[in-house]
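Final report, results section. Input specification for complex C-07:
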Amino acid sequence: MTVAREVDASRIRAWITPDSLENFAPLAACGSEADGAALVFEGRVRATNEGREVSSLAYEAYAEMAEQELEAICGEALDRFAVSSAFAAHRVGELGLKEVSVVVKVAAPHREPCYAASRWIIEALKSRLPVWKHERYADGSSVWVGAPAAASGAGP
Amino acid sequence: MTVAREVDASRIRAWITPDSLENFAPLAACGSEADGAALVFEGRVRATNEGREVSSLAYEAYAEMAEQELEAICGEALDRFAVSSAFAAHRVGELGLKEVSVVVKVAAPHREPCYAASRWIIEALKSRLPVWKHERYADGSSVWVGAPAAASGAGP
Amino acid sequence: MTLDGLDGDISIRTLLFGVYAERAALRECSARVAAGSTVSDLVEELRRAEGWSWLPRRVVVAVNQSYAEGGTRLSDGDEVALIPPVAGG
Amino acid sequence: MTLDGLDGDISIRTLLFGVYAERAALRECSARVAAGSTVSDLVEELRRAEGWSWLPRRVVVAVNQSYAEGGTRLSDGDEVALIPPVAGG
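Structure output:
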């Protein structure tokens, strides 16, 4: 159960967006004069996944919940690590090769907690964010990534 | 002793520069279609350091050696970690508060080695790069950071 | 649409995503269940509906946009999302 | 400039940085040492020069832009940098 929290929008921000995350401008606001370190993680669409040649993919999200959940994850990172700000954005819709699917920025007075918080946020969003990936392959087939094998065929 | 190595400029790049590292454009070339992850570390001038109020600072470098050494560090990161590219830049000259002093970008097929390589590069450059920091404080005093106390007073 | 056979006292807005939306061939439906029903009760009702046997018994569920346990009691008008294995990142 | 008293057979371009440049009040000088001298020999010669007693015996040194051990033998025209504690990042 997600607990309601006071959100300080200067320190915690989250977006689920169909817009490009290339040089995502709102990240510039993450961090303050007190922060000597910032770390930006970018996830991109890879040309191959588990040995298969990816041609394109689409992310689908339960957008309202995903945005709340991503914001909650950023807030939890501030509770767990000595970081002052955490911003994160996840793309939805059709993505081509090399496009940015997810971006996470954390800022802190010192660098060590940035690394720990950034990794934690990525792991948390991968396990908790209600977002689904539909991968299409060069051979024409496609699959909902993560779906059990039995459920990944055609519909009923 | 640094061993001469073949440098692949598409995978390893290093700069010692007096120019701003804010949104440092050459970093965009770090990474390829095979890379699903990229990590950008930014170090910035903090308003306080060890409890003292910083007003400004200057970085001095043994520029030719520092650039070679930074390139060597990036190359070693590629040998040590499963990352495909490592670019790094260090600023020299006068810097104001919040300005970027150092930036490191690594890209890899998978995210885990990005974190390990990025941390390793930062630690290595902090211990090896022939770069010196002259901090000036709000109270008018200044110090060469890292210099032994006996050597941090006025010249002879 | 309203699912046939689910005609209880309270109405649950049920959302489907990803592979579940593909299996059910719909993204949203209204399910009526008995007052006092839990998340698990709703899932069992859905699994009994025509063409819904693919729905895993232990499906992950969110109620009103927060993850919820099977024992969570539902209220009229609740929004229940059936959450396939997530794959963000 | 050429340091007084360092008048050997080979000429070493000696570079100073940061707090060392401040202590010596110069950034570069030519030091002449005996042929066959090592890095440690050069450092000892420098420490004996007028106004150079502040130079640590175990100063970190780079020869021709690579870190070098005290036993490294110097050649005419080498570039030797005296490296104060570094503080990049």
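The two ends of chain C are 32 Å apart (CA to CA). The longest helix of chain C spans residues 39-48. This concludes the modelling results for the funded period.
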